[in-house]
From TrEMBL:
Residues 3-191 form the CYTH domain. This is CYTH domain protein. InterPro entries: CYTH-like_dom_sf, CYTH_domain, Uncharacterised_YjbK. Pfam families: CYTH. PROSITE patterns: CYTH. CDD domains: CYTH-like_Pase_1. SMART domains: CYTH (SM01118).
Amino acid sequence: MIETEIEFKNLITNNEFKQIRDSFFIDIAPFYQTNFYIDTDDLQIRNHILMLRIREVEDRFVLTLKVPNDTHVITEYHQIIDEEILKQANIAEFELGADIINVLKERDIDTTALKIQGQLETIRYERTYKNGLLVLDESHYFDEIDYELEYEAKNVSDGKVVFNEILDHFDITRTEEVVKSERFYRKLVERKHG
């Protein structure tokens, strides 16, 4: 399955997380998900500004390749996979599916050298809000914990307005958007190279 996602993100503090949770998600239970990030040891996928992961939510495993198109706009390739893939030393090409293999090979990424580089666990709250999806995440990876506010919209202009309204309401400073996978990979590189 291929889809386009329009999203806005901002890292927030623990206090801002609590304020937003208590305002928007007071009656909503969180759910838990784990992202397993896949790349070559020399991070060819990351170096092409792509992201390949397996996400586990409630015993369901989805392989996703994210390809940025424009600011806030991403094409995503998804497929359901078997949990057994997590036990393999390397990810076999046939596990990826034709669409994902084609995107990777177009960029000369070595699809025979893919393996899981690590995982990131998230406690996630979600709710519909003003024709979009409001998401609040607490993520754990290596020795890090961070907090993120996200808004998924149907179009960039409306999404930007709604997201900025939320930030303004809570007096949150807009920060550079650094997606979860990039935060994970920065920490991975730091740990590998000391």
